[in-house]
Amino acid sequence: MTIEQLYSIFQQHPQVTTDSRNCPEGAMFFALKGERFDGNQYAAECLAKGCCCAVVDDPKVVVEGDERYVLVDNVLRTLQLLSRHHRRTLGTTIVGITGTNGKTTTKELCAAVLQRKFRVLYTQGNLNNSIGVPLTLLKLTADHEIAVVEMGASHPGDIRELVELVEPQYGLITNVGRAHLLGFGSFEGVCRTKGELYDFLRQHNGTAFVNQDNEFLPAMAHNLKRIDYVGAEVLECSGLLKVRLLGTEVQTHLVGAYNADNLRAAATVGLEFGVGADDICQALADYVPSNNRSQFMKTADNELIVDAYNANPTSMAASLDNFALVKSAHKMCIIGMMGELGQDSHSEHEKLLNRLASMPLETVWLVGSEFQEFTLPAHFRFFADVEAVKAALAAEKPQGFTILIKGSNSTKLFQLPELL
């Protein structure tokens, strides 16, 4: 079956699932495979639950004579090509976003701004990989006037693969930093891979939104049609961030001066698409994060800065720089280890410990095996995992502290705010 033939099925049944536990009536089931699962084994079950067809790549599961089975060479690649065909058919204006840090927040802010004028589709959650991006594109409808699509990467070539599906007319790289070094091999590898978005725009006469104040991005954007970010002045970053932007004071619900660049990005995108300055500022002021990124929380006992979705040396430094500016009589950090740093892991965690030791913090709790081998100062405590932290909190909960919670998602520190 050709992609065009498969697309005719999609046009009649424009709903896709890859999860056998979620089979809406009439949906197309794509039998993806992973390290610990094989969707082909669930094809019959999904058809019985009401899926209109099952796209599979294992001929052994196909029932002869049952035309609801669609046999292809590779289910994932078929899903990707179908999404590109759909994207091309609709011709929607798309802004593609990638970067080491801040891409999800920037995506959310851009969508919030654009929604003041347009019907917008944007990436939900962190569906920003080789599966999530096609699923996002297949949610496009003729009603959407613009889309904001986030693209993540952990290996060389990842952005090239995704951008060739998304085919954005506009693009934005938030920044480049030291993350996923195990996959990229080096910081230079990070730059090359993130720069694949610029490469696509360069080849297809696209436009890049560029932070002209970033150390690396202007040079990466050479020979590229570009729009530089609007300026912003940070007015307050002890607690919630307040900026002056487009001549207006904007009180946000975000934490961290590092988010000023994300606000600038969204404002710049909004202006390019004709959103008024007042609407832009109101959208940014109204946006409330809810994804463990740059969240400020007050509990009965403490004030929390929760940035527990991800961590790498660049984002960790930005969080600590901001926390150093926070005014509080009692400050504490709960820091999870940083994952996927490869041979740089020991040295990067040592730098982190030295930075923490130099800060005026009453106590620091460190979570994860990467911290185990270091000799720690007296006011530092080591915990093997989040369960050990939970036990400590049950025995002796801090009170009256401002607490930064920051770590890679794998350390599960996002489970802690409700206990603090």
Topology:
Layout: H1 3-12, E1 16-17, E2 28-30, H2 43-48, E3 53-56, E4 69-71, H3 75-90, E5 93-98, H4 103-114, E6 120-122, H5 132-137, E7 146-150, H6 158-166, E8 170-173, H7 181-184, H8 187-194, H9 196-203, E9 207-210, H10 217-220, E10 225-228, E11 232-236, E12 240-245, E13 248-255, H11 260-272, H12 277-286, E14 295-298, E15 303-307, H13 313-325, E16 331-336, H14 345-357, E17 363-367, E18 380-383, H15 386-395, E19 402-406
Parallel strand pairs: 1-2, 2-3, 3-4, 5-7, 5-8, 6-7, 8-9, 9-10, 15-19, 16-17, 16-19, 17-18
Antiparallel strand pairs: 11-12, 12-13, 14-15
Helix pairs in contact: 1-3, 4-11, 4-12, 11-12, 13-14
Structure notes:
This protein is 34% helix and 20% strand. The chain has 420 residues and is an alpha/beta fold. It starts with a helix and ends in a 14-residue tail after the last strand.
As laid out across the biggest beta sheet, the strand order is 6-7-5-8-9-10
Structural class: alpha/beta
Through-space gap between termini:
55 Å
Overall strand count: 19
Into which percent range does the helicity of residues fall? 25-40%
The description of the largest β-sheet is: 6 strands, parallel
Low-confidence stretches: none
Radius of gyration of CA atoms, rounded to a whole number: 23 Å
Strand residue percentage:
15-25%
Quaternary state of this entry equals single chain
Total DSSP helices: 15
Chain-averaged pLDDT: 92
Shape category = globular
